[in-house]
């Protein structure tokens, strides 16, 4: 388990977690009033990074240089200090994200695909290249790093030589991690300190690579990464072929109405969809129209008339409730198209 590596270097744990997830926030709504987050106003957003420079439309490069190649977006570390990173220009508010990725090789190199919010809610995939048959899952609520027992290590075949699809299904009551369509971990809302530590605020998708084994890092960080990085053995390359995103609550903007960081305090403005706009209603009936919605459509697994392995949309006083089972059989294979079809069925 990943926790064993953390416990061996607990004095450096805060540094490990901060760098590993490449975390930051420009404005934290828990501390001050921030501008609304720009939302994804459609249900679907997909990127094929093999198609050239135009494939980066909808993405910002926040560090280094990322280029399109025949294998996908290329993230390269060639020297100390390199940490190329991209993130979406928009936020989603519950949904499904899948990243088809081939992780980097080399001692101490960390390939990451994460979701992160302004209040530092976070859901992670992290592949530490030193360990060639595994990838790690993790999560944080509101930047809370008071404990380091949240991570798990998942076996995966040759992640540095083979493309795998890493998925995150994120709703108000549960989060599922997928590898190639199979569930490998489930986190329920109640299991994250009764929801206090559960990621539940609008998030961007952030993808990047960094050297956990950099000689200038703390001893604990280098130990967690499996040893010092030898830059002369590079370059170290991560490829991301494609990304598919489903936003369960399409909207132009998301606004924090208070400083609780609770999903019920988030309002969505001018919600739209791919040709079908779901409109909220103050009554118990739900309607589909071309009008906009001023209320967040909360995606949840604990309400509505769902059955195991299925997702349904049911009326609610606050709008449409998307519901899917949190207890999904690990043999069930899903992809973004199937997720969207189920959510809209």
From TrEMBL:
What domain of life? Eukaryota
Key words, A-Z = Cell membrane, Cell wall biogenesis/degradation, Glycoprotein, Glycosidase, Glycosyltransferase, GPI-anchor, Hydrolase, Lipoprotein, Membrane, Signal, Transferase
Q: Which SUPFAM superfamilies match?
A: Concanavalin A-like lectins/glucanases
> Biased composition, Low complexity: where in the chain?
272-294
**EC number(s) per UniProt?**
3.2.1.14
Q: Which stretches does the entry tag as region Disordered?
A: 271-294
Any Pfam family from its record, for instance, is: Glyco_hydro_16
**Membrane topology note:** Lipid-anchor; GPI-anchor
PROSITE patterns, per the entry: GH16_2
Q: Which reaction does it catalyse?
A: Random endo-hydrolysis of N-acetyl-beta-D-glucosaminide (1->4)-beta-linkages in chitin and chitodextrins
Q: Where is the GH16 domain?
A: 36-240
Q: Tell me if GTP-binding is a UniProt keyword of this record.
A: no
Q: Which cellular compartments is it found in?
A: Cell membrane
Q: Supply the enzyme class, top level.
A: hydrolase
Similarity field: Belongs to the glycosyl hydrolase 16 family. CRH1 subfamily.
Q: Write the protein's name.
A: chitinase
- What species does this protein belong to? Aspergillus pseudoustus
